[in-house]
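Example for tutorial group B:
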């Protein structure tokens, strides 16, 4: 008699590493095109991407409007950047 056991934990794909995904989104060509400047680690844009993904979608400690209000940028730029960040995060499966 053969026994077959499966462990559902082993069959699931590992969750994406959120910090690596945030780095990739912040440094993506689309975000650089919107912002028009350096978006690497430590920049205000990198902090923007981190706060939108982590505070709004992961921790649910703030609304998108609250996070957008903490950054000193043109309102249209913030909204376009937020849309792009959310689009890419959904495509990567982190929100």
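The residue assignment follows.
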């Amino acid at each position: 008699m053969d026994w077959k056991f499966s462990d559902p934990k082993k069959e699931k794909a590992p969750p994406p590493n959120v910090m690596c995904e945030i780095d990739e989104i912040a440094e993506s060509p689309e975000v650089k095109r919107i912002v028009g400047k350096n978006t690497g680690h430590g920049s205000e844009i990198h902090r923007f991407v981190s706060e939108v993904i982590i505070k709004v979608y992961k921790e649910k400690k703030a609304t998108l409007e609250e996070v957008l209000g903490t950054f000193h940028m043109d309102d249209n730029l913030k909204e376009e950047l937020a849309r792009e960040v959310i689009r890419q995060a959904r495509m990567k499966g982190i929100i």
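The mean pLDDT is 86. Compare this with the pattern of hydrophobic and polar residues in the output above.
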